[in-house]
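Sequence in, structure out.
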Amino acid sequence: MASSVTSSPLQRLRGLLQPGLSARLTLVGLGITLVFVLAALLAPVMQGAGLVQNPTASLVNPIHHPPSAEHWFGTSQAGYDVFSRTLFGAQAALKVVLLATLLSLIVGVPLGLVSGYLGGWLDRLLLFLMDTLYTLPGLLLSITLAFVVGRGLLNAALALCVAYVPQYYRVVRNQTVSVKSQLFVEAAQAMGASTWKIVSRYLFLNVIPSVPVLFTLNAADAVLVLGGLGFLGLGLPPTTPEWGQDLQQALGALPTGIWWTALFPGLALTLLVVGLSLLGEGLNEWLNPKGDGLI
């Protein structure tokens, strides 16, 4: 019996810190993610201290400069400092992605809990609606919604949010269906516990471990989708520091040898996606030591 007992969070954390390949990749992902979080938080402070330029202000004499001591990542054809725009682009990406994934979580988790526990016609209706949304490609759905609602931080977050709600719903709903048949839930029902008490106290605490994994992996995907929206001109307003938008503007400059305007925003986008993906896989392994997959 003792061997079948699930390890404690502390034991799993110690296992995560062991010098294995998976643990190292997880720590790399965490480090990369923290670097971008710090960049987003410190960008306004650095601008106020004069360490970086205004990302939306063009130089007096707009001309593309290659990377140098004065402009670490060079300047664009429009005269923007690429380092400043890359730095503030992290802030824009994390704002939109965090808002989108939080909205998805707030909507999808309660729907999954209620649907899985109550069952019946409500479960069938929600399952049909969510499965319909889930079958649509996330990028195509986000592009369509962004085209309808227009540009803007909140609008971009809403366009991303709709694509991820079905994922939270499906994961939480399936786990709720499994947990509600357990003896402790049946005992609570027999003792006359209310639906709210059963859902919030017994079911929620047993299905919530899957949410951080899904949250992190959705965030990685959302960075890519936001970059795609920006590249198509459907993301944030013009001149706003945003990697996808900067990549689109840099595309025409590549044939002329101006490589730095595309390299650094593209590299930042790729690194953040890799960092969040590695962190999500590490969380999945930590929260799910049996390896049967939370998502």
